[in-house]
Amino acid sequence: xxxxxxxxxxxxxxxxxxxxxxxxxxxxxxxxxxxxxxxxxxxxxxxxxxxxxxxxxxxxxxxxxxxxxxxxxxxxxxxxxxxxxxxxxxxxxxxxxxxxxxxxxxxxxxxxxxxxxxxxxxxxxxxxxxxxxxxxxxxxxxxxxxxxxxxxxxxxxxxxxxxxxxxxxxxxxxxxxxxxxxxxxxxxxxxxxxxxxxxxxxxxxxxxxxxxxxxxxxxxxxxxxxxxxxxxxxxxxxxxxxxxxxxxxxxxxxxxxxxxxxxxxxxxxxxxxxxxxxxxxxxxxxxxxxxxxxxxxxxxxxxxxxxxxxxxxxxxxxxxxxxxxxxxxxxxxxxxxxxxxxxxxxxxxxxxxxxxxxxxxxxxxxxxxxxxxxxxxxxxxxxxxxxxxxxxxxxxxxxxxxxxxxxxxxxxxxxxxxxxxxxxx
Length: 425
Hints:
It is built from 15 helices and 17 strands. By secondary structure, it is α/β, with parallel strands linked by helices. The chain folds into 3 domains: about 5-135 and about 300-320, NAD(P)-binding Rossmann-like Domain (Rossmann fold), CATH 3.40.50.720; about 140-300, Dihydrodipicolinate Reductase, domain 2 (2-Layer Sandwich); about 340-425, Alpha-Beta Plaits. Helix 6 links the parallel strand 5 and strand 6 (about 125). Helix 1 (about 15-25) crosses helix 13 (about 300-320), helix 6 (about 105-120) packs parallel to helix 11 (about 200-215) and helix 8 (about 160-170) packs across helix 9 (about 175-185). The radius of gyration is 24 Å and the shape is elongated. About 45% of the residues are buried. This is Homoserine dehydrogenase. Belongs to the homoserine dehydrogenase family. Its EC number is 1.1.1.3.
């Protein structure tokens, strides 16, 4: 039986999981994929350290040993980062090697280039693991839901922030306290910026939107806000309104262009995404034929991510066996505009402190009215030192009109401060 030789670039958390899972499935691979497999080489930085995870004879720190070996047909990139991963993948594809990657950073920026290079060289370039870990979402968008016109892709695609917000909601923690717990348990990196400021989720939104709407969306196209300014008080008030706060990635295909954004949102407690707790992820998809579908599971971790990587490997092996490599490549045949955040319509939750005297609420309402903002709910909360805390929820309004109203309010002497603004689903 034909044997396919595979190389793995990186042996960190995910790379170690991929190697282990390939070895676990090695005996059954002829029946699952129609071919035998052999892990031929593993590229690592520190051979001594990596020897604790894999057979030392497989380890190398020289990329040329892999790219120069014509017997290696499939390369798995789980190094992460833009470089040298980007160079290695491009060289592999140009050499006619099939590539599996989990590299959301690279794909969210250079996805089109990589996919076109794969097409030119009749190769597969698959990257299911780049979004939502072990949850199948990219392949369903490209294949199972290919008969649909997808209008919405929305979800919780960062486990770290969801864990933090769950702790803040269920245990009344402040952000810094919840982040410390997430770090201690290994959910947050030593530098959590990419997670808590929304950059990780934005990369995933760019990838999903590109596939769902058949038009290229890159990381820089995605409007991004994080959760670092969310407080326990915001969550308390959201609960009073029957809502939870989640960091959502939102992509919409509208007649005026694509909306692509990541930011905290109040969502009704009855919404399916509100029940997604801790480090779990979920993606909610709406198509004109399928209606609503939700994909739920573990969005990160050694074995869940390895599951997605090895699934892609098996897909490539099957394609090789049946002579159909490269059959599903870049699906971006459209060139749709990306909407500016100022043109997007949302409802808003805001919390502000204003002087507690007659006429102030009427003045605030007048500012909103003059800028086309309709108030759906207004609640006056505690009063201290002559200032009342006011919670306002608006009806749907164009972002730029809402921001015009905010600019006026911030300049008024009766307003001490605007403490928080959060969009509402």
